[in-house]
Structure formats: structure tokens, C-alpha cells
Amino acid sequence: MITFTEAKANERMKKYVPNFLLMFCFFWTAAPQMLSASGRTISFPVPQFCAADTNLYQYMPFPMGASVAISRMKNNARYIEVVTKEFNSITAENAMKFRSLHPTENTFNWADADYLVDFAQKNGKQLHGHTLNWYQYLPAWVNNFSGDSIAWENMLKTHIQTVVTHFKGKVASWDVVNEYFNDDGTIRPSIWVKNLGADYIARCFQYAHEADPDAILFYNDYGHEYSSAKRTAIGKLINSFKERNIPIHGIGLQFHMTYTQSDANISAAIDFAAATGLKVHISELDVRVNTNKVQGLAFTDAMAAQQADRYKQVVKTYNAIPKSQQFGITTWNVGDADSWVPSWQGAPDYPLPFDANYLRKSAYKAIIKGVK
Ligand code: XIL
Question: Among 115, 256, 326, 329, which residue's CB has the most CB atoms within a 10 Å radius?
Fold first, then answer.
């Protein structure tokens, strides 16, 4: 005879309810895909408890980050929640650039960047510094600077060393120089090259290293996936640094790419970077779909699938390089409405793993599939 005591009933509840919830969540989350595979498009929200215990970074064998916009980090509760929950690394989208930190010759403005340092420390996130030297995002006083080469050198060194010193022990890694090369592999005739000569890039790394010998120093650029000329130029630069003992520890692949990018190009970029022996950071990943810059373009299921496939391919290829070289993957902001792509290309787009309401897109699931 079976007698149900209260204790026994509780025990059974404990045993079967979680299984039931798991099955429920599985069918609930799979249903939209099953229905859209049968030709119908349907979407309904996933109940919070189904998603409550999962987050992106816990699936990843390397740091998973996003760049963050300071205004949203201060004012948008949902944004803060997603950043906190899904990522274990952050990069300031703009708050550590020259114009943000050093708006006039004799003033440094640390408030916004320090806000992110504080957030990272309180929430146990890695914080990557971006960027000590770039030809864009400069304040007017630098663009109008009229000193001689000694004054230029002093200005460059002061900026780099003041910034690296301020964040010493708080920011463990830096993009030291960003976008030094053109796509054809020639050196971009930036304001820095014009005033300081092409080898100023080596001195940037030396100045940063002097200020914080523990900092992991990166050269960061875009286009590795579509320009073999640029890749080759970056490879030569790294070799010359190694020969001359210039401190460089990592290579950043921005990966602002289109959803038509080929597997072969993605592999070529990642494998080339890994062959340098340096750490590799996929530093600014986004996958745009509006290749013809169509105004009013809607995001279709077919686009979502192809975009997801690109995300998966990047993650899968990256996951195959030696673990010691995997610095991490960072997406360039969080949700589609936060992305820089629409204003940059002058047309709408949907390049990120979260949609405008911070719901997870197919790309999100594809990132996880990439490491399975
Ligand atoms: C972009 C930001 O996303 C924009 O908000 C800003 O107006 C311009 O810069 N490569 C880089 C990033 O290294 O710093 C750029 O970020 C995007 C391209």
C-alpha cells in the first residue's frame, strides 16, 4: 500500500517540477523556431524563469564582452541589467578616447571613465581600455595644435602616460594604437604620422609600457577579414616590433563585418592573427545586414539566420586557436538600437545579438553554438 506523507509529496515535487519546467521552457523557446521553419513567422516572449539562470558569458571558455555607452550605463536600467548579466568584460565605446578624457590641453575629464571602472570593479567585470591613440575622436585643440616636433612628442607622451597611469591597476589592457594602416597596407597619413613620423607608433607602445609595465598592449584595426594587404602590413609591423623589443602583447580584430562575409575570410583573419603568437581580441564585433543601405529596411528571418551563421563562424574559428591566445570576444555595443552602424552607414541596421528591446536574437544562440 502506498501512503503519501507530506514529506514524500514534497520530495516528488522537488524531483519532477524542475524537469517539467525544463521541458516547458524547451518547448516554449523552440516553438517559434519550429513554427517559422514550417513557413509561419511567430514570436512570443520567453517567460523570465526560463531564462533566469542562463547568461552568455558562462557558456564561453574565454571572456565575452560588449562595448558600452556611458549615457546608457547611467540611465537605462534594462541596458545595465543586460550588460551585468550577459557579459564578463566591457570596453568603453567612447569614454576613454582622447576627446572624452582630454578635452582641452590642460584638463583631463575622468568622471565617465571612472564610472565604468567603478561598475567593472563592483560587478567583477574585466575592463579593456580603448584607445590611447587614434586619428579620430580628437579634440579641436589637438587638430589645431601648432607646436614643433618636440612639442608634438611631448603632447603624445603626456596623453598616453597620464591616461595609463590614472587607470593603472584598474584597466589591465589597452588598445594602444587604433587604425594605423589603410586597407591597401600603406600607412595612413594621420595627423600623428605627419607630425611625428611613421615610427611614432613604436613610441606609443613604449610610453604605455613605461607607465604600466603590467598592462597588456594591443594594436587594433579593422579589415583583417577582407584585406590580405592590410593583414600583411600588420604582420610586418608586429615582426619589426618583436625584433626591436617594442612591447606588444596582442592584436585586436575589430570585425565590423557584413552578413555575407565568407568563412574563408574569417578564418584567414583569425588564423593570421594567431600565427603572430600574440593574444587575439575580437574587439568590436558586429554583423550588419543592410549591405545596400536600403532606407526603412526590415529585419527578416532569412537575414537573422545568415547573420547568426556569421556569429557562429567567428566564435567557432576563434575557439580553435590556442587557449593562451584567447583574450576574448567583444561585441560593439549590446542591442540593435545601441549600434553605431546605422549612423555610420546612413541606413538602418540590426547588427548585434540583442534586438532593440534586448531580446536575444538568433545571433545570441549562435554564439553559444559556436563553442559547443
Ligand atoms: C565609434 C563609436 O561606436 C561611435 O559612437 C563614435 O561616434 C565613433 O566611434 N572603430 C573603432 C571604434 O575603433 O572606436 C569606433 O567606435 C567604431 C570603429
Answer: 329
Kindly report the pTM of this predicted structure. Answer: 0.88
In terms of DSSP H, where are the helices of 276-360? 301-319, 341-345
Which atom belonging to ligand 1 lies closest to the Cα atom of 69? 5
Q: Which atom of ligand 1 is nearest to the CA of 178?
A: 13
Residues 6+ apart with CB under 8 A from 40: none
User: Measuring CA to CA, how many Å separate 134 from each of 147, 206, 308, 328?
Assistant: 19, 16, 31, 22
Ligand 1 centroid to Cα of residue 130, in Å, is: 10
Reply yes or no on whether the pLDDT at 74 is more than 80. yes
Residue 347 DSSP class: S
Closest CA to 289 of 263, 307, 262: 307
DSSP letters spanning 29-80: HHHHHHHHHTT-----PPPHHHHTT--HHHH-SS-EEEEE-HHHHHH-HHHH
Q: What is the pLDDT of residues 307-342, one digit of tens each?
A: 999 999 999 999 999 999 999 999 999 999 999 999
Instruction: Please name the residue that has the C-alpha cell 538600437.
Output: 337
End-to-end C-alpha distance for the chain, whole angstroms = 47
- C-alpha span between 288 and 8 (Å, rounded): 55
